[in-house]
């Protein structure tokens, strides 16, 4: 944050709990550093967040400050039909992809290479930007899938099958 040129930061995480934990940690670190650090506006975004708090990511960043945006599930619940990565001013992106973790739920802690590349493309849409990947190049090439597995293959259909059975459907 201190050594990078102006522009907001977009951090992709896997869910609301992880976003809230990271936001809290970052806010605490910013409080400890106080005035030694340029202003950093930490703005989480997820569907359960009230719309007035979601709207903050669309407001212009004050001069001398930087925003950190934390979208979840491609901007689920965002007002104005916009994706957080499409909001002007993003110059740095941190996609979180955890290689080698099996697909066990709809909100998986990894992403395929295609998604990682798409997220990296959000850096610098209107000006030069950077993507800080939180994994190695080897892990990207050898552990991440090339494309996403369809949700129907990732979802646990057990509850749906039990519901249909309870309704007398085979």
UniProtKB/TrEMBL annotation:
InterPro entries hit by this protein: Helicase_C-like, P-loop_NTPase
SUPFAM superfamilies: P-loop containing nucleoside triphosphate hydrolases
GO CC, alphabetical: catalytic step 2 spliceosome
Residue stretches making up the Helicase C-terminal domain: 1-168
Organism superkingdom: Eukaryota
GO molecular function: RNA binding; RNA helicase activity
Signal peptide as annotated in the record: none
Recorded catalytic activity of this chain's protein: ATP + H2O = ADP + phosphate + H(+)
UniProtKB keywords: ATP-binding, Helicase, Hydrolase, Nucleotide-binding
PANTHER family per record: ATP-DEPENDENT RNA HELICASE (PTHR18934), PRE-MRNA-SPLICING FACTOR ATP-DEPENDENT RNA HELICASE DHX16 (PTHR18934:SF83)
Name by which UniProt lists this protein: DHX16 helicase
Originating organism: Molothrus ater
């Amino acid at each position: 944050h201190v050594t990078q040129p102006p522009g907001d930061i977009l951090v992709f995480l896997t869910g609301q709990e992880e976003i809230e934990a990271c936001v809290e940690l970052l806010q605490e670190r910013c409080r400890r550093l106080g005035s030694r650090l340029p202003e950093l506006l930490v703005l989480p975004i997820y569907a359960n967040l009230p719309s007035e708090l979601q709207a903050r990511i669309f407001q212009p960043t004050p001069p001398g400050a930087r925003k950190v945006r934390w979208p979840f599930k491609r901007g689920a619940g965002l007002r104005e039909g916009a994706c957080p990565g499409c909001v002007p001013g993003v110059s740095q992106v941190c996609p979180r992809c955890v290689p080698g973790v099996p697909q066990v739920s709809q909100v998986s802690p990894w992403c395929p290479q295609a998604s990682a590349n798409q997220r990296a493309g959000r850096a610098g849409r209107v000006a030069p930007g950077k993507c800080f990947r939180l994994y190695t190049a080897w892990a990207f090439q050898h552990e991440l899938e090339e494309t996403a597995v369809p949700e129907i293959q990732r979802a646990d259909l057990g509850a749906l099958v039990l519901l249909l059975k309870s309704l007398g459907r085979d």
